Amino acid sequence: MYYKLWNNNNKISKHYFNDNNELISIIDNNKNNLIALNLMCRKFTKLPDLSKLVKLEELILYDNKLTKLPDLSKLKNLLILNCAHNNLTEIPDLSKLSKIFELNISYNKLIELPNLTNCKNLVYLFCSNNKLSVLPKLLHFKKLKLLSFYKNNIQIIPRSIIKCKNLEYYLKYNKYKYQFNLKLFLNKKIKYYYYISPMKYYTKIYICNF
Fold this sequence. Notes:
By secondary structure, the chain is mainly β. The chain is built from two helices and eleven strands, in the order ββαββββββββαβ.
């Protein structure tokens, strides 16, 4: 585990720690200059209050045993949030994190996306290996470059995906009700159309308009 601080001379310093019990004191002692917190692979089941970390830009919670996250709404400078490979069934409201550009919530037990209403700076959105049934409204995220939703319960591909010409997406292994219309995607020159090919049990993908 490690954390990064802004020093008085406006330089970033990186500090390592091994004891999970140190986390609360690190937060309390560095709340005004802590910009990155990496807690990956530490078997955390619960996190302390993080709301004091108002300058935090990077929060890595990859590969723990978390079932829920604390309130993150005050982390308005957050740029990167990675909570993949946990046991999360829901993600708290992220709509106030307007600066976030990378969100990884893959390999959890999510059935709904968090509120991303004001997250218009999202560039990378990783949501694979969950139980999600609906894609986000893609035209809302004009900067989005990569969308990963493979191994979910997606049944419908939104028509708006056709207009996202620079978007790379990974949608394989979902539960499409209809067969993939290959010509439609080829005519629009959408990248990675082959990742949308449904399982052999289905016959046609419906392109809905929303």
